[in-house]
């Protein structure tokens, strides 16, 4: 398997570079910007996720002999471009919203300053990472709200591409989930992993009782027993009989949960298992979780809906050329007029305006070459991510993932109450462009 | 980067194995089955995709020192299980629907025969691959139908996780797309790649005319020019002025396509560019493509909707333990009763019944230890994929991908007309279990 990420790229990025080299325009100094024109699903805010992962992938974005040979064999680009690719590593600057930051329509989430060729070549990879990871984080953050403080675990690996699953576990964790079922996500990003047994384990054994006994023998009485393979109430009875009232938890993976959870709680209490927790895992999304707010659920396991963005599987971010350096050193704004896809050119400096009580009330995007200082009521949103080709190490790996999770908690705590409504509607705060 | 796929696994697969080893049940001879209870999106049929990819990932499913150390450090399983994992490679049998085959609710797409431990450990990976790849193929095959023979290209890499994007390109190709924008998919799976230029290329240059000239200088007049950066009709005029009436194609990526395409066709014809083709790429899905059936479109580029399964981003396949070998050597059917998730136990042999004219009219699933011979009116659906741990090579790599694409064309050609309706409804043919 190849470890270079360089061919995770749309062919047209390379053919554009090829033509631009021939024309002498490939080395123009440019600004590219990642933003979303809208929040898919008419949500109230988004959560930026994927940035740390993207930085690592940019580090590995190199054209080795295998990549060059394939491009040569397939006549994708000419010799001059092949030579340039052989020497490619990103040497420009990237700044943007810190991972875990909340965002709104037109928030300039990532800005890339580099030559045209050096910047445009990262478009596909940057969007793949940010669109998927942020789609998951956008869904996950709503589930965290709906869970009103109860812990959530991500267990949707089987409903996502096997590598997407690892990214999804990370994005959900950044958005406030507490654990994942995915072992690779544990290894790669330091995320706590969880899980005990599936229906297959019960079916394998001669009886539910034998299966429970086998699990308890190995994992102890603090484990979680899955009680709905045959009959839930009989399963609960067997579970407590085998494990005793010290059983850690039971898991429900089917049925009409609001009713069932209440019945099972009463049954557990009547059996003296007042400390045994109830975790539920049956096709949950933010709405199903909200419906269970008044039920005695202790924790949630979420699968399909979180890894597929709960109806919005891509965050609709785009990567646009927004400025080109003029001869006098100033940025010349660039924007297209395409119907429904117009963009706003120029260099931008985003700020979040906060009320005296620290509540966000406006996304302010200053347009102009000179970045203004943040006013007292503003929080500056850009952080440097890559400076002259050097990646900011603190955003990488498990430490970077943990930092993003912390930052998301802080950023979300600034949001007005309206941001947490699950219904469709406008962004929680308006985005305002402040021109030069 | 680690190349082992072994930790693309839910933690509970390993804890189940750990408990089963302690109980002495891990070595029970078992049958696991992959199937979907329903076709998400109320579609009429599905297309199996991912099988060839899964076989390669199973080949790489080995626990090296890095994986074992992480499991040890995190106390996931005990010593006996670690020793067993160190020696793990799949030594059992896998058979199933040939990749590219169409499927219906409860079609047993994949069957795994192995010890409990050896089979259950593949659950997460198998479902990740089959659920995502088939979700893409399920959407793509409908787009192919809607395109009434016009070529389709997949260009959604930026709207999917970077590795999912490669898998999506492959699944769309199997389902009948002709090319992809994704270079890695070209390298890894031999899929034709396509693409010329984006809006950024036009914006980079002093004028649209200069951009077009630069592209033509490098890529020739048979290239595709993107004409909607500023004003479409002016863009078309400029394109033909610069390229001449021999221009290969123009691309439209915005606007109200049915109207615009007709106008642009007339404009091209009036400029003498009667051979210049029109390709459209603006947020297409199967319904938008169908709407363009009467418009003079020559080809389609599809992004977001194909890589996200057009509303159904996971195929809802499950991996269930369906039988355990009894002491007399017969299969003991196993099934759970969980509400809404009941399964049907036993070994199964699937056949597709065809009319005298070769039209599919029933999915017949024979339950029983002895696989029946196909009747004259039946086509047997299972093929061996792994025999005693040895993978069938012909399903791997670019050759396997091409074979799957051919098989999909054949399988789809057997379907009744009702299968091609885009509206929601029942499966095109009923699935019938024939018991023993």
TrEMBL record, chains A, B:
The keyword Glycosyltransferase appears for this protein: yes
Family of the protein in this entry: Belongs to the NAPRTase family.
Pfam families: NAPRTase_N (PF17767)
Domain Nicotinate phosphoribosyltransferase N-terminal, chain residue ranges per copy: 7-131
EC number: 6.3.4.21
Post-translational modification: Transiently phosphorylated on a His residue during the reaction cycle. Phosphorylation strongly increases the affinity for substrates and increases the rate of nicotinate D-ribonucleotide production. Dephosphorylation regenerates the low-affinity form of the enzyme, leading to product release.
One MF term in the entry's GO annotations: glycosyltransferase activity
Pathway of action: Cofactor biosynthesis; NAD(+) biosynthesis; nicotinate D-ribonucleotide from nicotinate: step 1/1
Protein name as annotated: Nicotinate phosphoribosyltransferase
Stated role: Catalyzes the first step in the biosynthesis of NAD from nicotinic acid, the ATP-dependent synthesis of beta-nicotinate D-ribonucleotide from nicotinate and 5-phospho-D-ribose 1-phosphate.
Cellular component annotations (GO), alphabetically ordered: cytosol
Naturally occurring in which organism (per UniProt): Mycetocola lacteus
Keywords noted in UniProt: Glycosyltransferase, Ligase, Phosphoprotein, Pyridine nucleotide biosynthesis, Transferase
Keyword Cell inner membrane: no
GO biological process terms on file: NAD+ biosynthetic process via the salvage pathway
Reaction(s) this enzyme catalyzes, per UniProt: 5-phospho-alpha-D-ribose 1-diphosphate + nicotinate + ATP + H2O = nicotinate beta-D-ribonucleotide + ADP + phosphate + diphosphate
SUPFAM superfamilies associated with the record: Nicotinate/Quinolinate PRTase C-terminal domain-like (SSF51690), Nicotinate/Quinolinate PRTase N-terminal domain-like (SSF54675)
């Amino acid at each position: 398997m190849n470890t270079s990420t360089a061919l995770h790229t749309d062919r047209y990025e390379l053919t554009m570079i090829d033509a631009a080299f021939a024309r002498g325009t490939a080395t123009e100094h440019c600004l590219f910007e990642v933003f979303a024109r809208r929040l898919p699903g008419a949500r109230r805010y988004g959560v930026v996720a994927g940035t740390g992962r993207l930085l690592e992938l940019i580090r590995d974005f190199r054209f080795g002999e295998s990549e060059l040979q394939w491009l040569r064999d397939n006549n994708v680009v000419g010799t001059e471009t092949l030579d340039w690719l052989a020497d490619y590593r990103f040497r420009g600057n990237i700044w943007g919203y810190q991972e875990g930051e909340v965002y709104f329509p037109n928030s300039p989430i990532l800005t890339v300053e580099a030559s045209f060729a050096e910047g445009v070549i990262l478009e596909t990879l940057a969007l793949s990472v940010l669109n998927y990871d942020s789609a998951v984080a956008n869904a996950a953050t709503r589930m965290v709200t709906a869970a009103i403080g109860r812990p959530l675990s991500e267990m949707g690996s089987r409903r996502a591409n096997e590598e997407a699953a690892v990214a999804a576990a990370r994005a959900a964790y950044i958005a406030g989930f507490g654990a994942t079922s995915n072992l690779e996500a544990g290894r790669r990003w330091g995320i706590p992993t969880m899980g005990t047994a599936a229906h297959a384990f019960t079916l394998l054994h001669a009886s539910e009782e034998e299966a429970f006994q086998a699990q308890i023998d190995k994992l102890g009485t603090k484990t979680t027993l899955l009680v709905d393979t045959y009959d839930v109430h009989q399963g609960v009875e067997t579970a407590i009989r085998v494990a005793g009232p010290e059983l850690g938890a039971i898991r429900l993976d089917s049925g009409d949960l609001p009713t069932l959870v209440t019945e099972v709680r009463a049954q557990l209490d009547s059996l003296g298992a007042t400390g045994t927790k109830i975790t539920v895992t049956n096709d949950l999304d933010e709405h199903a979780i909200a419906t269970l707010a008044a039920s005695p659920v202790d924790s949630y396991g979420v699968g399909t809906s979180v890894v597929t963005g709960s109806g919005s599987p891509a965050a609709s971010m785009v990567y646009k050329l927004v400025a080109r350096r003029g001869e006098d050193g100033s940025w010349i704004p660039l924007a297209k007029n395409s119907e429904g896809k117009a963009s706003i050119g120029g260099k931008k400096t985003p700020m979040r305006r906060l009320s005296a009580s620290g509540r966000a009330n406006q996304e302010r995007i200053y347009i102009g070459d000179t970045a203004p200082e943040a006013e007292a009521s503003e929080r500056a949103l850009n952080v440097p991510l890559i400076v002259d080709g050097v990646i900011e190490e603190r955003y990488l790996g498990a430490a970077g993932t943990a930092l993003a999770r912390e930052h998301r908690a802080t950023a979300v705590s600034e949001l007005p109450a309206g941001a947490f409504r699950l219904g469709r509607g406008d962004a929680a705060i308006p985005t305002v462009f402040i021109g030069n």
